[in-house]
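Lab notebook page, bench 4
Experiment: in silico fold of construct C2
Operator: M.H.
Input chain length: 515 residues
Purpose: comparison with the prior construct
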Amino acid sequence: MSENNKRLDSISPQDLLGLRRGIEKESLRVLPSGMLALSPHPAPLGSALTHPHITTDFSESQVELITGVHAGVEDCLNELTEVHQAVYQTLHALGKNQPEERLWVGSMPCGLPTDETIPLGRYGKSNVGRSKSVYRMGLGQRYGRRMQTISGIHYNWSLPGVTSEQYFGLIRNFRRHSFLLLYLFGASPALCSSFVAGRQHELQPIGEGSLHMPYGTSLRMGRLGYQSDAQSSLAVSYNSLESYAASLQEALTRPYPAYEAIGVRNPGGDYNQLSTSLLQIENEFYGTIRPKRVIRSGERPLHALRERGVEYVEVRCMDLDPFVPVGIAAQTVRFLDVFLLHCLTQPSPPDTPEEIRALAHNQHLVAAHGRDPALRLQNVGGVAGTRSLAEWGAELLAQCAPMAQALDAAHGGDAYAQALEAARHTLAHPETTPSARMLAMMRKDYQDSYVAFLREQSEQTRQLLLDLPYSAEQAARFEAQAQASLLEQQRIEAADTLDFETYRQQYLAPERMAV
């Protein structure tokens, strides 16, 4: 028996049944015209600061929908569907007095206004609420607000008995092989030209007001997406919890000249950002996957990781699938389970600065040119040369077969084998990828217009979700959650004793990140 199979066999069926997942999904609120809605977060949805399932991400116009933790794939997606229904019922009711908004079903944004008019998320007058808004102001200052309106799916995943060391082995392998996810599930090969207004880019014009890459898979994960010159100087090591934490703490405490020039406050006293260091807080570090730990009230994420270890991983490279009402299909979720189990059970040598650079290069290549049959990627793990994406992907999928079998044996049925077979088919037939299907539909029915295609997909999704049964009990439950969240925000605001500047300095103190 190979070493790899031994690792998989050491995970019991009971442990596989203990696999847990949760989903976070970002979506822009848009007007029927396909332009960004500039209205505040709808009040009937409750407090974006404290609601357990409905909040905002960067922008006041960017809804984030969050499930609980689930053992079952369908249970998780059913809850995500139900949260969508609650939002759509609210938008529909509000639409009686204003243009009825809908959720944009693409990862790359809708038609955008000028950068400075994109509204930042607002979370009330408490210190924690203000710090969230100031953090977003800093993101806008550092990277521009348009970049922050990109939306995606975050997939949170854990398995019983996995140690921090094993999770970091998983993370290293995930980073080596996540190019395959961009190819299989990338769904952002085109965008509205308003997104890159005034910026240099390599995109090619397509229909009116639209740009694309002919073989693109996920522009969201490429050079136009979550990228920055400042962060490209970071070579965060994933070789251990200690090396990861040390890399991040250095970035969180090292002053960065361009951000020092912006300053924490402007001459009028308003805040520009939380700090002048390379990263304001931990969440500013962009990665395809993150080690995570549930934090206690007021706790720094880095301190939680250092003190109690990794609890789960957060996969961050999944685009919204515009062909699926809630942005991700059950079959995709199951493939992610197989893929993550593969990453966990395969040998995972330490990363190196050279490999980290090669992985970034591969990610950008696949994002922009992933469906090009001639595409070759840099080898990793100290192996020189290049290899074709198709050949490497096929090898990875073959290695995933025992993981799919083990999950099916634990759960019964063959749903995981089917998910793996669907991935094999997509790899062999690039025209079936979401990115290729998008471009083909844009060309066939929408005169190559990105906004026209996504506007129609968003409208169809809105209608489908509004047509689903939505009981009085469901409505009452969400209304109660909204009311409870508003009361909790008021409680937090009433409990503040510090002025904001003192709070900011105490929260950012380096000792808060240490164990």
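Observations: The first helix runs from residue 3 to 9. The mean pLDDT is 95.
Next step: discuss at group meeting.
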